[in-house]
Structure prediction request, 410 residues.
Amino acid sequence: MLQNCKSFLQLITIDYTKIDNQVEDKDKEYDVFISYSHENSEKAMIVLKTLSTLNSHRIFYDRNELKAGTLWQEKLYESIDKSTCMVALLSPEYLQSAVCQEEYSLAITKHFQEGDFRLVPMCISNMEGIPQSYSKVHAVDARQDFEGTCLVVCNAINSFISMGFMNPDIFHIDQTTIDPDEILFKYREQYYQANYEKLIETREKLKTITTSATESKQENQRNEQQLESYHTDTGPNGNYQYDVGFSYGEANKKYAHFLHHVIEGRWPEVVTNFSLNKNDAGFMESLEKSRMIITFLSSLKFLEVEELHLALFRHRGGKTGHKVIYPIQVVPPSMRPTYLKLIPCNVACYDLHWKDTIVKAQKSGQTLFDQAVLDASTDLIATGTGISSEIKLALSMAADDIISLIKHSR
Prediction:
């Protein structure tokens, strides 16, 4: 999942603000979240016992808090959001763990975005080649005398939680703020400027626009043998039976319907799991067997959480360079959960460049929508709904992007 977190943290714009030392949030469920590699469990247990001895703190320690049968990934993210402080035990094993990297990315974002959350990294072993993002917050050196240093750190955390006092030797007080929304907007803007015209040119060169039902049928027949071989490629949970899987909540059904229609219109031989009735038996299994999962991000209320975390889990364990999840931001993300703000998207339907492009096209007489978009629009109207021209353009680019990524991965 958050492979781009380390790169976008390097784009932080500094904005010095006044520090608020009052630690009070009714939504806080934990005082301390302990982040560590399981290779360093013994030292994590020392932190747990030391904190527990000093005070009756509410501590998130995964072996105690994660229950069998729960969505552990969601529980981790949610617990960091609901914590006042996170202790991160940095080691080579920590840096190599995808889960630890995700926890650290969430914590460092909250550290610089929220005045009542503190990240306390502890360096517990020698490391080489520490990523730049891990140097944003000063790490306490606990390599020589871990137990002694741990006691000092835990005492400082106890004072912070109990009285709001931050020991400058332990806490990174040089407060800066970041706006993940602004950082990711800049990323999307750059991606749009670099790829919009190229994707359209690629579409034309590959001649993926449907010209007639007969040609589509012939194309399918020509590719039947190739597709049969392709679908025997083994995925993480079996064979890839689908090129594209769709994950969406009821509120985003029309966007998924439209995008599915455009992708099929431009690439007739594509195999998808799209269904207007997601209660079909085997739907979750179909996501497991999709080469790429398109997920529509909106408010948590309209999000299919289990499907999203399946996609994130698969993405984390996927091959380098293989984009398993293709997220599309439908509406601006809310403050919570934080992890939704950190999922890099190539396309957000609300970005202003879509409207600007339409205005420029209208002035110049340029035609923006191909037959696939027009057909998808007609099909959507037939269902009694419709979407704006700006969103059509955003999803049109997403379709080109998705087709290009999948063909490249094949």
Notes: The radius of gyration is 24 Å. Residues 180-206 form the longest helix (27 residues). The mean pLDDT is 81.
